[in-house]
Write a structure and sequence with these properties.
CATH class of the largest domain: Alpha Beta
Structural class: alpha/beta
GO molecular function: glycosyltransferase activity
Largest sheet: 8 strands, mixed
Number of helices: 15
InterPro entries: Glyco_trans_4-like_N, Glycosyltransferase_grp1
CATH superfamily of the largest domain: Glycogen Phosphorylase B
EC number: 2.4.-.-
Number of strands: 14
CATH topology of the largest domain: Rossmann fold
Keywords: Glycosyltransferase, Transferase
Distance between the termini: 19 Å
Helix content: 25-40%
Radius of gyration: 21 Å
CATH architecture of the largest domain: 3-Layer(aba) Sandwich
Organism: Sphaerisporangium aureirubrum
Strand content: 15-25%
Order of helices and strands: EHEEEHEHEHHEHEHEHEHEHEHEHEHHH
């Protein structure tokens, strides 16, 4: 099968979506399929990679988005799709690329929209007060479901806004985590000594510094913990449009802004070395960074308003949107014995391997998990 995948909001420094695209693409390729990913960039290019062919098409920068670009030119993308002749189309942007569902239907191509975000959640964060958020989200979600053969959501929380509308072509398929790259044995005492003094609690926030990720809640949690006498410090991995504002908010607190870290090995070592990770984004629909922390043996405190309680289960804690609630959840985790809480985190992550995720997505595409070889029975 020729599987063509389209995605916006992907850049060299983006996190979860880029990780998911790469892991699924590599899995499709290993299963014997021909895979092409089309993403926006500053100029056109084509490269063969471990996740298949990656085609970059010119797309304008999104103002204030910290480097994200969009595929906006429809005619060149139509020509590209016609030249690629896909058997399956997978789209990871249900707003600006939703029109490709109609293209796929007109060309007899089975299509799938992967919903990586909660539209109602995002509108609730960013829309002006008088905007009818639920009605607008419902209208867009119904149009999305009508445009594609399948709508795939990665958690029950993410699927809820479609399920409430009675969407018949909805499937739920979880993502995965690299259980070899992220593991407890990546714990690095030398790295810990650079970030925290003996006896200090090392917290980690890993995520893009954009409004929906709520990194300010991690800073508020640190401030409250220190007010309570807990000698905590915070390492922030990630960059984005809110970095300067967050640095100002953290003034006077022991916060290390490490920026975007391209070295995945270093990210794995930091996550395995931290005592607790924080993932306070209230509209997270899966949370790969939180799952990577669990795989590293580090429990995670998440927003109770997001999908992440589904992911972390008993291996983490959940909090409301205030520093006091997050601080209390951190203290509750620290009260558990360290070997026990780290083992529980790893066990939870082991429920989410990438091989199972790849099989689930291929099943949603209605293609075999492994293509039969010519000449074999």
């Amino acid at each position: 099968m020729r599987i063509v995948r389209l995605a916006n909001f992907v850049s060299a420094s983006s996190g979860g979506l880029r990780t998911a695209l790469a892991a699924l693409g590599a899995g499709y390729l290993a299963a014997g399929h021909e895979v092409t990913l089309v993403v926006p960039g500053p100029a056109r290019s084509s490269e063969d990679t471990a996740q298949g062919r990656v085609v970059t098409v010119p797309g304008p920068l999104v103002p204030g988005a910290g480097g994200y670009r969009l595929i906006t030119a429809r005619r060149p993308l139509r020509r590209l799709l016609e030249g690629l002749e896909p058997d399956r189309l997978e789209v990871s942007d249900r707003t600006t690329l939703r029109w490709t569902g109609a293209w796929a239907r007109a060309h007899g191509v089975r299509s799938m929209m992967v919903s990586h975000e909660s539209l109602s959640g995002l509108l609730g964060l960013f829309a002006p007060p008088l905007v009818p958020v639920r009605r607008l989200a419902d209208r867009v979600n119904l149009a999305t479901a009508a445009a594609y053969d399948v709508v795939a959501c990665t958690t029950g929380w993410a699927a809820a806004e479609f399920r409430r509308l009675g969407v018949p072509n909805l499937v739920q398929v979880p993502l995965g985590v690299d259980l070899a790259a992220f593991a407890p044995d990546r714990h690095d005492p030398a790295l810990r000594a650079l970030l925290a003094r003996p006896g200090e609690v090392l917290l980690a926030h890993c995520g893009r510094l954009s409004p929906e990720k709520r990194a300010e809640d991690s800073i508020a949690a640190l401030a409250e913990l220190r007010r309570r006498g807990v000698p905590a410090v915070l390492a922030v991995l990630g960059d984005g449009p809110r970095r300067r504002a967050l640095e100002a908010r953290a003034s006077g607190l022991p916060v290390r802004f490490l920026g975007y870290v391209a070295d995945r090995g270093l990210v794995a070592r930091l996550l395995a070395t931290a005592d607790v990770a924080l993932a306070p984004g209230p509209v997270e629909t899966f949370g790969l960074a939180a799952l990577e922390a669990l795989a590293s043996g580090t429990p995670v405190v998440v927003s109770r308003h997001s999908a992440l309680p589904e992911i972390v289960g008993e291996a983490g804690g959940q909090a409301a949107r205030d520093g006091s609630s997050y601080a209390g959840a951190v203290q509750a985790l620290l009260a558990r014995d360290e070997p026990g809480r780290r083992a529980a985190a790893r066990r939870r992550a082991e429920l989410f391997g990438w091989p199972a995720a790849v099989q689930g997505f291929l099943h949603a595409h209605a293609v075999p998990a492994r293509e039969p070889r010519v000449g074999t029975p």
